[in-house]
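Bug report

Summary: structure tokens for CoA-binding domain-containing protein differ between web form and batch submission.
Environment: batch mode, default settings.
Steps: 1) Submit the sequence below via batch. 2) Compare with the web form result.

Sequence submitted:
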Amino acid sequence: MNQHHLRPLFALESVAIFGASNRADSVGQIVFQNILQNGYQGALYPINPVHTEIQGCKAYSSITQISDPVELVVIATPVKSGPDIVEGCGKRNVKTACRGDRNTIDHSAVFRCQLMIALMNAARSKGMHSVIMSAC
């Protein structure tokens, strides 16, 4: 039997966090710190184009620098960067992405729908199974 496409959400072996940060109270800092402090056992890859280390872990400037497979990406970057990130993840054969951003709440419903459509189109064009967007 083929593996179910939701498996990466429940049995993750690797997670990359776009926007992982050392800046207190940023979404990327909170998400990365929560994963670190709560006993995640898989490979964890902070992605930040500016820093070489995030919270004591080696940071990567892009997903293309990670040689191992990545099962899930969490996107905690400025809103408009999402579709480009999803497209890059698709090229690396990442199947699931989660867009976590409290900033979308400040945008209109039309903008949020347009963003979701752009994310879904980028995902479909690269064979991704799931894109989950919070705060929509």
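Above is the batch result. After comparison, the two runs are identical; trailing whitespace caused the diff. The radius of gyration is 14 Å. The mean pLDDT is 80.
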